[in-house]
Amino acid sequence: MKLDPKAFAYVCAALCGASVLVIGLCNLASPGYGRAFLQLLSSVYPGYHADSTIESVFVGTGYALVKGGGAGNLVFQLADIAFPSMALEHVNDPGAEAVNRSIARLASNRPWKASEITRFQGLLNSS
After folding, report:
1. 61 contact partners, CB below 8 Å, separation of at least 6
2. Pairing with 1, which of 32, 66, 80, 121 sits 20 to 30 Å away (CA)?
3. Does an H or E element contain 53, and which?
4. What does each C-alpha distance from 54 to 48, 57, 62, 104, 109 come to in angstroms?
5. What are φ and ψ of residue 45, in 5° steps?
């Protein structure tokens, strides 16, 4: 299994976007909450103003989604260049075979359904 750069960028985008969305919504409920953070964002994101309006929450969240995706992609690419040996590849390695043998051993000792075992093995092998 290799880490997917697109998935990593999506996760980073979701985390950045969710953080700005939550802080912005909390600021709508309590206007003083997160004010310094939102003012910092307004100094970085052009067109964004740290107002307590739903429009500013959506604009800030959109900027954070784009920034998070770009930063996640950049971090992934730099880590891939700096640490190429850390790429995860375990589909056909002996470790995966050992896991499959362990699952089979556990299956013989526990009353698991055969469909659950094959589904779990499929999840391990598809990664």
Report:
1. 17, 20, 21, 24
2. 66
3. none
4. 12, 5, 12, 54, 57
5. -90, 115
Count of beta carbons in the 10 Å neighbourhood of residue 77: 13
CB atoms within 10 A of CB 79: 15
pLDDT per position in the chain (127 positions), as tens? Answer: 467 788 889 999 999 999 999 999 999 999 899 999 999 999 999 989 988 899 999 999 999 999 999 999 999 888 878 876 655 443 455 556 666 666 666 556 655 566 666 766 676 666 5
Q: Within 10 A of 93 (CB to CB), how many other CB atoms are there?
A: 10
**pTM higher than the cut 0.70:** no
Beta strands in 16-112 (DSSP E): none
